[in-house]
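Worked example (supplementary).
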Amino acid sequence: GAVVSQHPSWVICKSGTSVKIECRSLDFQATTMFWYRQFPKQSLMLMATSNEGSKATYEQGVEKDKFLINHASLTLSTLTVTSAHPEDSSFYICSALLSNTGELFFGEGSRLTVL
Amino acid sequence: GNSVTQMEGPVTLSEEAFLTINCTYTATGYPSLFWYVQYPGEGLQLLLKATKADDKGSNKGFEATYRKETTSFHLEKGSVQVSDSAVYFCALASGTYKYIFGTGTRLKVLA
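After joint prediction of all chains, the assembly is encoded as:
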């Protein structure tokens, strides 16, 4: 199947700093990617839909100025957590949509710990 | 709104035991239903899916039937292996590709 890669797989940062997480579709072009957040023992929560060449669409309750999403190319979407705080610590997962089949392919996830 | 509820884990079974992981959903319209599996250190992978009522999805010995009357999509396997140890997610998608996931159920199979 198609491959989606996230980087970094884990990151630790100090409170107040910004962290960027990359999501790449390695063997297909994805005009649409999705970002999710997962708390321990909870569901994956959709944060936003990332569209290549246009602004991301955020879900209700997700701060767009806090979680900046950029989808500058057909194979790369980035999520930047700005001015991170301990409550932003979580597991962030991206997925990319293979348009011709409608199937989603997921990255491995990135664990963020804010001290 | 749409939601997915799946049984809490962890589920611990001996090799060759029968597996059932329950999943129920609430949704307007006619969603597609999915089971994803996440092995340690890897991303979620599609295990099987069903797009309409009474469809049965199957893959690698796993199967699940889309039951509209009970709003369920339970995952079953007749004989689990140690290599099936993973976290299993039930999910639904309606209209656009906004998926709603269950909380995940961790399965541990002992040799």
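Two points are worth noting when inspecting this output. Chain B has a mean pLDDT of 93. Chain B touches chain A at residues 4, 8, 36, 41-46, 89, 97-104 (CB under 8 Å).
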